[in-house]
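Exam revision sheet. Question 4 asks you to relate a sequence to its structure. Input first:
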Amino acid sequence: MNLLLLSNSTQYGRGYLEHALDTVTSFLPANARLAFVPYALADHDTYTARVRDALEPSGITVRGIHEHTDPVAQLAKSDAVFIGGGNSFRLLSALCRTGLRDAVRDAVRGGLPYMGASAGTNMAAPTLRTTNDMPIVQPPSFETLGLVPFQINPHYLDPDPDSTHKGETREERLTEFLEENDVPVLGLREGSWLRVRDGVAHVEGARPARLFTRGTPPRELATGTDVSRLLTTAPRFDAPAR
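Answer key, structure tokens:
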């Protein structure tokens, strides 16, 4: 499979996808017909226009999957697929409703390049369980695309030592996940991404990633780190440590 999994699509002070534009345009086939899936936000037309404005100057034709009566057939006519960010629960619900969850999974496993950002990156994992989002809708299941066998936490935030907020940190929440599930979680900070191609995976982008596994302290993974061994993960969900 050929995957580009971005933590975020918008970086502070920069335009949409600007922080990763060279990586995105080199990942996508030349003059690609890109199927864009905007279901994570309510305004599909405005969202698709934003992606067009960012990518069409590079010769990429952006087609909103919602613009067609048969989104599965439209996917089959595309050279790559991009699932954008927003609310992961709303996104997964729409993917299930339209038949795209299975169609995208099959197409990507068959070689179609897949790009995700934020919620779209969450979709590449086996389940929705490590998203940061509020469940504003109820999808029929938490099962996502399972393009990689481990979990990902986009927008990973380090604890702020100066904050007066005493709620759970992201690290504490992921630790709680590992108490109930024996599955590695790759925390991707803003400006970073995971690149997977032909069975090889690397952390890339501006900042290191943070890897959480049951029974071991979290580990920092520098940009460029080979994490291909994560692709051999055998996930165990609903497997409490106690």
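Marking note for examiners. The radius of gyration is 17 Å.
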